[in-house]
């Protein structure tokens, strides 16, 4: 991609040259990459809506579940880091899985599954952000009105799409503020909870990984915890815009996951110390509190005034994650388009902002339409759709771990480092992820799993496994249009099929 020599000569600090796909290379540093990774997870929102359910399953072993759920995430992060060093492409799992297992696996697991999971997540994040925003504005009656929530959510999607459209530097600047508020709120809440009269002293026994009452509760709790860590890999999709792209994105992935672990453990210990695990009152085992433990515990811990800060943190947490979803998805489909696996329209780059113009608008618009459709069909349907995300996460993370091992299989004996970081650890992570996928799929078959069922089969299973099956059918159909990509096998992503005009 040629650059303008006149601009380079007349500017003391010229912009970085566009990459082969037209993105603005070198525009993101380590701190910005970490911020994008953390924000995409929505830490305040994720711990608020997950901690109660985990506690209901395993009681005061919730911190142990948080720790164990982190293990496959960390192992997967190593796989992402090693694959990114070898193949720094914004298509990430799409490119890596294609190189390892061929175009069919790459298109389905690394492309379709990732994007479907992200779109479903965007609908949930937009709804949560809209509901909290209306409440914070004192519009409680509108926060329970579906039409008002849909309109507000669509406006939020439009706002984050505009920010993503205008470039990563603006997006990163916004994320610093939003992420900072979340971390301050979570650590402030935790410190206040520990200091409250009546709070019990935390115990190391809460971290005992051998105290679970059987494999079933263990698997269910760990799968729930996978959701609260999911999303950090969005930072890898900006690798072509990151300085030192073969090193910094991998470092940022590991750093962001470690920061998440520390934040979640601190918040989990604090919440259990203050409220306990009882099934009534403020107890975390109370089903009435499970949907949002921070909103329940905020007023008694912080008081009515400061608890609003926690609510604001959850609101901006959802909105910031929504922003990174748009950023990550548009770059993943840019790569798929550039390698000839999607229509050429996805390769369109804005001439000024150097962002995937079509892909950004496409994902914003698709999320708005899907949000509206799911909400109008049934609120329960949307809830089951969110639960199905866990299946999709475990599936594509597991396949990515296997792709790492297979891609580097001939080099695992080169050094102990290669054996562990490119072989043993990614393989172990993949095994845990795929075991969680199989166990969860089995459990979700039950008609009483979730809120809906169809002909005796759980609606969550049909949405999760069904979306993968729909992707397989869609792949058969698109093969007729993108013959070159599917014909060339593993070499299909070693060069760009489509480049910017």
From TrEMBL:
Keywords: Cell membrane, Membrane, Transmembrane, Transmembrane helix. The keyword ATP-binding does not apply. One of its GO terms (cellular component) is plasma membrane. It is found in: Cell membrane. The chain crosses the membrane at residues 30-55, 61-80, 112-135, 147-165, 177-195, 210-232, 253-277, 309-334, 355-379, 385-407, 419-437, 457-478. One of its GO terms (molecular function) is transmembrane transporter activity. Its main location: membrane. InterPro entries: AA/rel_permease1, APC_superfamily. It is a multi-pass membrane protein. It comes from Rhodococcus wratislaviensis (Tsukamurella wratislaviensis). The keyword Mitochondrion does not apply. It comes from the Bacteria. Pfam families: AA_permease_2. This is Amino acid/polyamine/organocation transporter (APC superfamily). Residues 1-21 are annotated as: Disordered.
């Amino acid at each position: 991609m040629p650059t303008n020599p006149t601009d380079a000569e007349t500017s003391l600090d010229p912009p970085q040259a566009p990459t082969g796909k037209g993105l603005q290379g070198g525009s993101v540093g380590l701190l910005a990459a970490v911020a994008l990774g953390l924000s995409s997870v929505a830490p305040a929102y994720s711990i608020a809506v997950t901690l109660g359910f985990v506690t209901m399953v395993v009681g005061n072993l919730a911190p142990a579940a948080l720790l164990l759920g982190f293990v496959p995430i960390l192992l997967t992060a190593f796989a992402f880091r090693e694959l990114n060093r070898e193949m720094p492409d914004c298509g990430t799992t799409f490119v890596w899985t294609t190189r390892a297992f061929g175009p069919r696996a790459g298109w389905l697991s690394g492309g379709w599954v990732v994007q479907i999971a992200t779109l479903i997540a965007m609908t949930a994040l937009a709804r949560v952000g809209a509901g909290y925003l209306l409440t914070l504005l004192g519009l409680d009656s509108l926060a329970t009105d579906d039409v008002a929530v849909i309109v507000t959510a669509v406006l939020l999607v439009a706002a984050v799409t505009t920010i993503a459209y205008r470039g990563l530097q603006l997006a990163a600047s916004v994320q610093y503020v939003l992420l900072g508020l979340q971390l301050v709120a979570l650590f402030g809440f935790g410190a206040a909870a520990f200091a409250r009269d009546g709070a019990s002293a935390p115990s190391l026994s809460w971290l005992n990984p051998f105290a679970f009452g059987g494999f079933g509760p263990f698997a269910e709790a760990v799968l729930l915890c996978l959701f609260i860590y999911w999303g950090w890999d969005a930072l890898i999709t900006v690798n072509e815009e990151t300085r030192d792209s073969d090193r910094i994105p991998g470092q940022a992935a590991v750093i962001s996951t470690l920061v998440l672990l520390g934040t979640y453990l601190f918040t989990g210990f604090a919440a259990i110390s203050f409220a306990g695990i009882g099934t009534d009152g403020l107890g975390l085992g109370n089903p009435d509190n499970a949907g949002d433990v921070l909103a329940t515990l905020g007023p008694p811990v912080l008081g009515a005034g400061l608890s609003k800060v926690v609510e604001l943190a959850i609101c901006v947490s959802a909105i910031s994650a929504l922003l990174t979803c748009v950023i990550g998805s548009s770059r993943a489909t840019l790569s798929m388009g550039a390698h000839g696996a999607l229509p050429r329209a996805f390769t369109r780059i804005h001439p000024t902002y150097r962002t995937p113009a079509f892909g950004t608008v496409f994902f914003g618009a698709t999320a708005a339409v899907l949000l509206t459709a799911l909400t109008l069909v049934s609120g329960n349907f949307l809830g089951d759709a969110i639960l199905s995300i866990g299946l999709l996460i475990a599936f594509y993370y597991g396949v990515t771990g296997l792709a790492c091992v297979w891609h580097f299989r001939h080099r695992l004996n080169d050094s102990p480092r290669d054996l562990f970081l490119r072989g043993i650890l990614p393989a172990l992570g993949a095994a845990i992820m795929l075991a969680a996928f199989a166990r969860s799929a089995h459990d979700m078959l039950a008609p009483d799993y979730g809120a809906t069922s169809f002909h005796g089969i759980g609606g969550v299973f049909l949405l999760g496994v069904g979306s993968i099956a729909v992707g397989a059918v869609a792949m058969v159909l698109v093969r007729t249009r993108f013959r070159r990509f599917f014909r060339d096998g593993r070499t299909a992503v070693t060069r760009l099929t489509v480049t910017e005009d």
